[in-house]
Every structure is written in C-alpha cells, then in structure tokens.
Amino acid sequence: MHDRLTQSMRASHLLALLFVLAALGLAAMGAATGDTFYLRLGTEALIFAGLALSVDLLLGYSGALSLGQALYFGIGAYVSALTLMKLPSFWLAMAAAFLATLIASIIGGLIANRVRGVYFALITFGLAQVMAKVVYNTRELGASDGMIGIPVIEIGFGPFSVSAGSPVGFFLIVLAVIMGLYALTAYLLDTPFGRVLTALKANEKRVPFLGYSVWRARMAAYVLAGVIAGLSGALYPMLRGFVSPELMFFATSGNAVISVVLGGVGTLIGAIYGSVLLVILKSIIGSWTEHHLIVIGLLFMLCVMFLPRGLVGVVRPAIETWLSRRRPAPVAAADPADLPAIIAETARTSR
Amino acid sequence: MKTAAITMFAAGLLAATALSGSAFAQSGPIKIGVVTPLSGTYTPIGQQVRWGLELAAKEINAAGGIAGRQVNLLFEDEEANPSVAVQKAEKLFQVEKVDFLTGTVNSGSTLAVAQLAERNAKLAATTVSFADSITTDKCSPNMFRVNARAEQQSVALAAWLAKEKPKAKVYYLGPDYEMGRSTVAAFKSSAEKGGAQSGGEVFAPLDSKDYTQYFGQIRATRPQVLYTSVAGNDTVRLLTQLQDFGLLSGLTVVGASGTVTSQNITAIGAAAEGFATGVGYSPQIDSPANKTFVAAFRAANKTDPDLYGADSYGLLFAYKAAVEKAGSTETDKVREALRGLSWQTPQGTKTIRAGDHQAMQPMYVVRVTKGKFDIIDNVSSENAIGPDACTRF
C-alpha cells in the first residue's frame, strides 16, 4: 500500500502537523503578550503561503512553472473586496472568489495549456501582466490607487463569530483555511489523479500510451491551482482592508516561486514553510538595511546552490526513514525527487 | 527536525522583538516613522524625502527639539508597493509605537496607510502623493497632505495661461493610461474655466516611439497651446519630433510637473525651450528662507532639493508647531492643532485647510529658459486651492 509517494507525503504531513502546532503555540504566545503586529504579519505570511502552495502544485507535481499565479490571487482579492464592500459576509466573499477564479482559471488554462515548458511560463507571466494592466487602468476598480474602505468583517460559524480585526481570531481562521487547502491538495495528489500528474512531470509522452489524457490532467491541475490561489487571495482584503493592482504584479508571483524553491519543490508543506520564512526574513532584513533585496537575493542563490531541494527537501528523507523504521513499508523510502528516475527506469525495463 | 528548530527559532525571535517594543509615551524622544521607497523605481523620490526630513530633524534637534523632546526618525522601505507600505507602517505603529508617520510616495500607498492610521488611531501625512482623491472623495481624518495636489498644479498653470494667452485654443496630448487621462481631464476643466477652447485631444500609448502620426491632427486644428502629460523619455521624443517637424514655432507647450524634469531636460535640449508648468516648489524661489534652506540642503547632500525634499522638510516644522500648540502628541489633540495651522516653509506660508486636511500654498509657474527652469509667475494659495470636496469630516 505504501509506495514511495505515499511515504514521502506522510513525512510532509508530519511536518505539517509540526507547523500547525508551532503556529498554535505562537498564536497563544501572541495572545498572551497582547501582540498584534506579529500575529497579523504571520497571517499575511499564511495567506501568501496559499499562493505558494498553488505554485508548488503546478511546479512540483505537473512540472509546469507558472510565473503568473498572482493573477488568480489578485482576482480572488478583488472579487472578495468588491463583495465585502457590498455585503460584509465571509462565506459570500469566499464563494464569489471561488466562482470567479474557477471561471478565470478555466479560461487561463485553455490558453496556457496549449504550450509547454518555458512557453507555459511566458504565457502565464503574460496573462498576469495583461490582467494587472487592465486593473491598473480601470477606474471602476480604483485604477492604480487600488480600493480602500473594505470593512472589518465578522466571520460567523453558526452561533459563534470571530472578527477579522481580532489578530488571534483571524490568524486561526486563516491557518484553518490554508491548512484545509493543503489537506485537500495532499488528498487529491494521493488519488489516481495525483499519480497521473506525477507521471506527467516524469515522462509526459508516455502518459497517453497508458490511456490517460494529458490535457485533462494538466487542465485539472491548473484550475485547482488557480482556485487555491484565488481563495488565499480572498483572505487578503479581510486582513489589510484594501486591494491594489500590485497584488497581481510579477513581484507577487515571483515571491511565491522563491518561497517554493526555498521550502522545497514538490513537497507541498515546503511551500508553506518557505513562504512564512520569506515574509519573516523580508520584514526583519527590510528594517535592518535598505539593501534587503541584495540580502534576500544572496540567500536565495545560496539556497539554490547548497540546498537545491529546499529546506523541507533536506529534512524530509530523514523523517521518511524514521517513519519507515517505525512501520516497515514494503518499499524502501525514497525521495520523490528520484521519482522521475524511477519511472524512467520502469519505462526502460518494461520496454 | 531542522525545520522545527528553525520554527522554534523564529518563534523565539518574534516573541523577543514583540516584548522589546514597549512604549515611551509622552517622554523620551518623539518617534516619527518614515515609510518611503528606498529601493526600486521611486528611489530618487524616497531619497529626497529622506534628505528633507533628516535636515529638518537635525535643525529641530539642534534648536532643542519639539517641546524639549528630541526627534527620532525611523525609516522603512515601502518598495512603492501598498501591500509592503501597510505592513511596514503597521510595524512602526504597533512595534515601534511611532507618534507620527510620513513618507509614502505613490497614491495607492498613501490611501492604504491613511486607512491603517485610522484603524490604529494615529496620524499620518504625505509630502509627495498628488492624486486629488487623497484629500477629496477618499479623505481621511487621520491623513494630512502638505504638498500641492494635482488640481493645484493645473489651476496655477491654467490661471497663468488665461492671463498669457486669453481664450487660447488648446490641444491635449496625454499618455494612454488612467493617470494620463485624468491629468488631461483635470487640466482641461481648469483651462476651460479660464476661457480656453479645446482643439481636440489624443492619447498616445506609453513608450511611443513615433508621435508624428498625431501631428496631422494637431496641425489641422491650429492650436496656440499644446498641453501634454507624457513623462520621461516620451517627452524627449515628443518634443524633439515636434521641433523636427517645425511645429514648435508659435506654439506654447505646457504640461504636467513631471513632464520635463532635471532628468530629461538635457536630452530634450533646445526643444524644451519655452515649456511651462505649474509647481509647488522651485529652488529658485527668491526668499531668504528658501536661500538658507537650499544652501543647507546642498551642504548636507551635495545636490539641490526638489519639491519632494522641500515639502518633506516643511512637514516636520508643521508637526513641531502642532505638538507644541497641543502640548501633547496625542492623536486627537495634534489633529485639532494641525487643522487650520499656518507655518513657514521654504515655499512661503502654508496653511492646512481644516475641511479636507490639504495644505494651501502659493503656486509657481516655471518656464524653461536656456535649459533651466525660471519662475515666471505665481498664483496665491487661495486662488490655486480649489473647492473643499471632502465630506467625511
């Protein structure tokens, strides 16, 4: 039952559990000291972690580098902002953002999935830039100034309600949403659909011979990633009370890619760790020196040179070994980065 | 477990920083947060803001501070991105507990920071953003603006134009994006109030290489005045191409304050001659206060101040006057003191209008003569300010 992918995902889940425990500990500490800034910074980091998660789904599983994932993040943010200004309901805003990004990512996917590799990266980049320019020049959407005046909402769960203005309350809600998205993605990747995605990354030409539609799998991954980015984006205006076209700019997409590489491509939880680390680093280094971009750039380069599998990529094999020793698995633990090699090998032997 | 260790480290770090940011309210130095672009495209503007504020803080501290308390400036880089600006401003408000905040450059950042200041019950001011919305339909009780807004610039220029070329036929050429269209619309309405006629308008894409395709239309309407709000290298191409086609003779070219600047004036060369615009500041202002300021600024930074440096310099003196008048740094008291406050700046007397928190100031019309801007006219603050359109307070 436990193949290599399941094995490594179980290690990711353990890291996810640690992440949630650490986040809960931090939230408790923040609440005890009456902190607001660090809790809200953490909330923002989690929101951008959702975006990074969607990038990792594409890059780490279907093997498609999206340089314009901020497009769906931005659409989610704008739709949520517009909804909240009409009717301050959390659920309605999330539903609206879901629908809007679903439609947008189907359209975007139809365009971007006509091509592969570097062309896919360029098309996604272009789509996001075009949309950002459209928003930048549309007066009804606030144009270059963005939109302010998004109310601080009450988020209702049956008889309970939490204010988005409460640092701890909103932190926990965002944590629940993002970890929910993580769990959903991890579940889907564990289904046959997820295996087809992994196969796509390893040997796309072979997939149709096994009876699967490449286009359909790529499309499904793209739409799923778009919706995840959109739902994360929908949380942004609830936290900050405004949206601006900069949310769709390349800087946002680029940061998400950096987070994924920092945390570990193809690990899912690595995207979340990477994003939190990047936001914290940017905040600390940015206050320390105005040359923070150089420092972040150097750290990124060092990470690519010495930790090419990212932070989680480094620790995960150890956890896998530990897990397999606790419960012996039929197959020895292997890193998913070796998967292409394994599949290629199977392909060779079956020839 | 390396990642867990890192998380624990980050957690410890967060807790330590959170605890160290305790408040020193009403004693010790007055902290002023500056959220301004220190990296990226807007760095030159952020640099002027920084120099202006640092010079003012140095002078205020040397003279005994604000109500006996020293001024301490805390800088953060906003990268000209509202999302970053809000995050940094929140850090300054909540962790550093600053008493006052300034520095935002692009209007989106200023508007977002205004809302944040409101939610944190603190005051903020901009010395750079000129979008009218900041002190009109999106005005905030916690935001002040001490620089001239777009309408003041166009009103000053239109007033000069009405005097210089009464009932002139004006042709408008703007860059084809939201800001370009709104600057043309704003100047057009000011000019038409002064009796100007419209000869037509055209919008060229940003970064156009060839403007000659529009010259036929311009020739056909025979305008006396051409208004343009293109900027940077677009201005270089537009003006030199106009000159090559011999269209500049008998035509007065006027424009937005960012159309011809010290950065592109040499590249435009002789084609810039006669270009006029409305500004809130010029280092040539002939007053003792400005001469002292320019000399001190040049000594400190080896360059001339521009309007951003001058407006930022002036802001600290407004804050000083307000805190001393209020006898406290509390938000409500300082807000009351700032409303209607008149104070001296290198640009002359400025007054903050209580109704919309917009500074009223004398405006200047400058024209390029022999490759340099000369002040040719000024418009009194009352005539340049325009109606109070803020309804929130």
UniProtKB/TrEMBL annotation, chain A:
Pfam families reported for this sequence: BPD_transp_2
Source organism: Bosea psychrotolerans
TM segment ranges: 58-79, 91-112, 118-136, 168-189, 219-236, 256-281, 293-315
Highest taxon, organism lineage: Bacteria
Keywords: Cell membrane, Membrane, Transmembrane, Transmembrane helix
Subcellular compartments: Cell membrane
Membrane topology: Multi-pass membrane protein
Protein name as annotated: Amino acid/amide ABC transporter membrane protein 2 (HAAT family)
Molecular function terms, GO-annotated: branched-chain amino acid transmembrane transporter activity
From TrEMBL, chain B:
Superkingdom to which the source organism belongs: Bacteria
Keywords: Amino-acid transport, Signal, Transport
Pfam families, per database record: Peripla_BP_6
GO term, biological process aspect, one: amino acid transport
Signal peptide: 1-25
InterPro entries, alphabetized: BCAA_transport, Leu-bd, Leu_Ile_Val-bd, Peripla_BP_I
Domain Leucine-binding protein: 29-371
Family classification: Belongs to the leucine-binding protein family.
PANTHER family listed in its UniProt record: ABC TRANSPORTER SUBSTRATE-BINDING PROTEIN (PTHR30483:SF37), LEUCINE-SPECIFIC-BINDING PROTEIN (PTHR30483)
Name used for this protein in its record: Amino acid/amide ABC transporter substrate-binding protein (HAAT family)
